């Protein structure tokens, strides 16, 4: 799987997980009837395990997800779930910090007369 850098959104399981506000977990994707026709599961890629946490904005919009995949089925316990949830929260905090740091500063009327252009 190390040679895979991206997956088309149409077949990506992330397109399913972005619809949820909770974790999406498939310990063995071949046991999920809704995934049997998915080319990542049924095809050469051989996806078996999938877990994702949504990246949810403070106002409730899911931007994407942080996901884990494997070609072997896996157990996913409560500690794993907590770690994945925490990782998604950290990603959102970083995105919010980036957003705050890249806002255009607003010029208040109090200081507008002090700005000059050469």
Automatic annotation (TrEMBL):
Superkingdom of the source species: Bacteria
Coiled-coil intervals: none
Pfam families referenced in this protein's UniProt entry, alphabetically: GAF (PF01590)
Database matches in InterPro entries: GAF (IPR003018), GAF-like_dom_sf (IPR029016)
Domain GAF: 24-94
PANTHER family assigned to the protein according to its UniProt record, in alphabetical order: GAF DOMAIN-CONTAINING PROTEIN, SLR1143 PROTEIN
Organism field: Adhaeribacter pallidiroseus
Upper lineage: Bacteria, Pseudomonadati, Bacteroidota, Cytophagia, Cytophagales
UniProt name for this protein: GAF domain-containing protein
């Amino acid at each position: 799987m190390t040679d895979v850098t991206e997956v088309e959104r149409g077949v990506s399981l992330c397109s399913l997980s972005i619809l949820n506000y909770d974790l999406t977990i498939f310990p063995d994707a071949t046991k999920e009837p809704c995934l049997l026709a998915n080319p990542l599961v049924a095809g050469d890629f051989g996806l078996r395990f999938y877990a994702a946490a949504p990246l949810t904005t403070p106002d409730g919009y899911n931007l994407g997800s942080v996901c884990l995949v494997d070609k072997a089925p896996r157990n996913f316990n409560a500690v794993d779930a907590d770690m994945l949830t925490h990782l998604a929260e950290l990603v959102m905090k970083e995105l919010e910090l980036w957003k705050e740091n890249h806002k255009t500063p607003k010029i208040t009327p109090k200081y507008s007369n002090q700005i000059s252009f050469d």
